[in-house]
Amino acid sequence: MRLDRLRIQALRCLHEVDLALAPGINVFVGANGAGKTSVLEAVFLLSHARSFRSAAREALLARGAPRLSVFAELRKADDRLLRMGLGREASRWEARLEGEDTSLGELIAECAVTCFEPGSHALIAGAAEERRRFLDWGVFHVEHTFLDNWRRYQRALKQRNSLLRAGMEPGSPLYGPWETELAGLADWIDSQRRGYLECLRPVLHACIAALLPELGAPELRYRRGWVDERDLHEQLEIQRGRDLARGHTSLGAHRADWSMSFEHAPQREHLSRGQEKLVALGCMLAQARLYADQHKDWPIICLDDLASELDEAHQAAVIAQLVESGAQVLVTGTGLPEPLRGLTHCLFHVEQGHLTPLL
């Protein structure tokens, strides 16, 4: 898939942007703070309904603007053109497909974007939430009912946590219905995650081995969030007293995690920051490649500040892979990355939120 056109209004410093994008490599160059990353952020919003930046959602909106919007014309592999838009006013997102109101789930199911950016090493070194998001995005694009079931799970979790914070005694029958709901949905979510990881594992191993052969064979470990040998419903009932003291539910699908280890780096602490970035990049490329295998259509690839995140040899290796794949690639930098010189690309200069095509 690719974006033929992208229109952005009132997103950070981008007040009014209207771009025609090339099907291959698109490069955005300019000084720091010019708005390059915000272009990628707009594209990422269409696929995730959230930013890859950690800043508060309110910071997305340009100062003084009442509303932000992102509109795109998305070209699918079968040459079908899909018009889609996402808007935010106050605290509410609004989604549209082909001019009609739609749900966020239906919108993000149509657009797939993967992104490598300066914070991507958090996928390896950060909190488990980042790794669950990565995993669940992949699952969602295989099984679209995942989102509804995950929301049902979150509602049941919220209800059980409310009982715990209210100090409800462990023997109260009020826990039972919510724990039954939690356990059943957690089993389903866990099954979907395991199935996705089994498909991802060989692709992930190949992508990371190509980037970091010196680390030896990679190994992927998954923890579902509760003890394998016992039923979650039973464990939740047993755990009520301890959870009551903590004020939250300590077992379930919301506690799942996964990790990578290597033959010559069995602990994450053995990896340098540069190696963490390369492992995260390998995960992103593997997820994109698996999506392409499953859907016969590559996702859009965003590479933010590529030259400062990777050495030139790894830049060249990644660019070569993506050129061969035929994916649409959006790259940012203070200048044109060296490996792109001599390759066909579309170049945009970004200055104070204004974009000018150069080539």
Automatic annotation (TrEMBL):
Binding site for ATP: G30, A31, N32, G33, A34, G35, K36, T37
Alphabetized UniProt keyword annotations: ATP-binding, Cytoplasm, DNA damage, DNA repair, DNA replication, DNA-binding, Nucleotide-binding, SOS response
Chief location: cytoplasm
Localization: Cytoplasm
Keyword DNA repair set for record: yes
Domain RecF/RecN/SMC N-terminal: 3-332
Family per record: Belongs to the RecF family.
Function statement: The RecF protein is involved in DNA metabolism; it is required for DNA replication and normal SOS inducibility. RecF binds preferentially to single-stranded, linear DNA. It also seems to bind ATP.
Name of the featured protein: DNA replication and repair protein RecF
Lineage, uppermost ranks: Bacteria, Pseudomonadati, Pseudomonadota, Gammaproteobacteria, Lysobacterales
